[in-house]
Amino acid sequence: MKAMNAATPFSPVVLVLLPVALLLGVALSVLNPLYSFVIAAAIGLGICLMLRLDAFIAALIVAVHIVIDAFMGFATYQLAMLLTVTLLLVCYLGRSKERPWTAPNLYWLWIPFLIWPIMAVLEGGKFSLTNSIGYYLPIVFSGFLMFWLGNNLSKDTSSIRRIFQCLAMIGAILAMHTVIEATTGVFLLKSLGKASAAEAVFILDTGNSRLGSFFLNPNGNGMFLATFLFIPLGLFMETRNGWSKVIHMGQMLIILLALVETYSTGSWLGTLAGLVIFILFLGRARDSILLTVMLLILGTIGAVVLQAQIAAQLAHSSDTSSSSLHMATWQTATRVMLAYPWFGVGLGNQAYLHLAEPLRVYGQTKPLQEPDNSYLQWGATCGIPMVVIFLSLLGSVFLSAGRNWLAVNPQERVFFAIGIASLIALSVCSLFVDGWTSPIDMPFPGWLIAGIIATPFIRRYRQHRLAVASEGNDAEQNLVAKHNEAESTL
């Protein structure tokens, strides 16, 4: 009973406030139906917090950031960040032996990651302070919060499985939005999007539409799908339940079909890189061989069924004008980075748009707000030291994940293979788009996954388990010694 009370510290308060909120929602709905929707959402969130559905709320935060903050244009209010702070607060106040709490792992790298861009915020604020802060909060501060949240929600592999199951559900739902648009031509909830949603149309020379879904950009959509593909794939390989395998296979196929409709070359390169890493880190050679055979069969079927889409993708990938523009934007970003080596031109797209223009190379035919490369964007907007800090932090995440991978049983290593492969896919995609540095795309789910696989609880649990086993062996040896002594006495 004590553990339950510690885990749900707000239960009495929530039980009192829920009826009051319900009556208030009914009263306000007479004035505006939107109020009733907000109240209903608040009530639902309160119930989830009361029941400590932490994994579901974490996945919900990702969806809120993409759909509400970015697509619907409520980024000013940073609702996803506020939800993250709320869930962290609940986790802290409800900490117990069953729900442990930890400080953020790799804090010695997070401190400079949080502090160094402050000067870039001030520099970017000379052009637009709201724009500069609007970049710092989602890609820096919220990234830290999501990483910390991932650390605290991943106390063991069962918790990690639960989080990935919720993320797979969110990924499949967002992918279904793309599939529905591809099959029916209808963009669901388009009227709720910000003004730029109506202008988000991308057509290939072959006539195929590149679908951006809630991201309003096919490259951002493809990057999300490439990152999330490995979650249901890993859950499919891990589970032994037949129905669960069917569900995860369905989620994986939906995400794959949606990825095809983005025609994003960078996303496919990220997918292939992540797939190689996933097979290598799967944990058991038998599973790696079975997965390779399964993928070959699936690829053969896809090549027959999706011939037109594959032909369009190959034609788009061989377009030299796109690759030439990418190379030119990277050259411009390199010039900017060398011209402003310490703190960059300032955080945000407005500072880069204005200060990069005098340094633009001839091949970049138009001014751009960012250089289509997250690593160069860190350097151009926040300085070369920020690139070093970010790469050190990302490398340390992979190192911590590798240690956790070694610490668990071979059948549990698939969970860390999921996270490592997802982050590899995201990092490869970030070579061609602003993945890690986009305020509307991947920092929230990316850093959440990083926090999950870099959690310090796994190694602590293993050390505790070894200590208990050692104590058990010592006790058994003492019993044997006493028994032998008694027999010798007799």
TrEMBL record:
Known Pfam families for this protein?
A: Wzy_C
- Where is the protein situated, by its record's location annotation? Membrane
Highest rank taxon of the organism: Bacteria
Its membrane topology, per UniProt?
A: Multi-pass membrane protein
Checking InterPro entries in the record gives: O-antigen_ligase-rel_domated, WaaL-like
Keywords assigned by UniProt, alphabetized = Membrane, Transmembrane, Transmembrane helix
Q: What is its main location?
A: membrane
Domain O-antigen ligase-related as annotated: residue spans: 252-391
Where exactly are the transmembrane stretches of this chain? 12-31, 38-68, 74-94, 106-127, 133-151, 163-180, 222-240, 252-283, 289-315, 375-402, 414-436, 442-458
One Gene Ontology CC term in the entry:
membrane
Entry protein name:
O-antigen ligase-related domain-containing protein
Per the UniProt record, the source organism is Reticulibacter mediterranei
